[in-house]
Write a structure and sequence with these properties.
The chain has helices spanning about 5-10, 15-25, 35-50, 55-60, 70-85, 95-105, 115-125, 155-170, 175-190, 195; strands spanning about 140-145, 150. It has about 200 residues and is mainly alpha-helical. The protein has 3 domains: about 5-55; about 90-135, no CATH class; about 140-195. A two-stranded antiparallel sheet has the order 1-2.
Length: about 200
Amino acid sequence: MSRTTAPKKKLESMNLTELRARYREVVGEETRSPNKKHLIRRIEESLAAKKRRSPARRATATAPSAPPPAPAAQANTAEGAQQPARQRGRFASMSLQELQEKYREVVGRPTGSSNVAYLQWKIREAEAGRITVGPRPEREVKVREDGKRVIPLSFDAEALESLDKAWRNAGMPSRTEFFRRAIRRYLVDMGAPEVAALFAPDEG
C-alpha cells in the first residue's frame, strides 16, 4: 500500500463520529455534516496545506541562490570606465576657486559666480576677444540740486501699479516715503539701527 493512499484508507475506515472528531482536530472547527466524502476531502485538503507550510519545506523552497551581478553595479562600473573619457579640456582638472581666479586674470574683474560652465565660456570668450574685459565702468549717478542722488529702480508696470496702490491705501504721502520706511524697517531687522536712522522721515 502506498503512502499516499494509506491516509485515505484510514479516513474511509472511520465512522461518521470519528471523521467529525478528526475534522475538528485537523480543520480546527466543528462540523455536523453527515457527508463522509465531504469530510474526508476537507481533512485531506487541510493536511496538504499544512504540509506545504511546514518549515522544512519552506526553507527548501526559499533557499537563496547566488544572485547575479546587479544591473546598477554593472552600470556604475561602465560609467566609471567611461568617466575619464568625459574629463577633457584644459579646465577639467580646475576647481571652482581656480576657475574664478582664472576668470579674474583673463576677464579682468572678480566674479562671484559658481556656474562652472558659465565661467569656462566667459574665459574662452575673453581670450577670443569677443567680450569687453577689465573693470566695468560705473554708471553715472544723477545728483539733484539739493545734493541728493537719484538711483534707478526698474519694476514691471503691473507690479509698480500694485505697489503704488498699496502705499496709497496705507496713507503714505509718496512712493519715496514708502521706500524710505521699507528700507529703514529692513535695516532694523538686519541689526543695523545706526544705518536705519539715516532713513528717518524728513522733519518739518
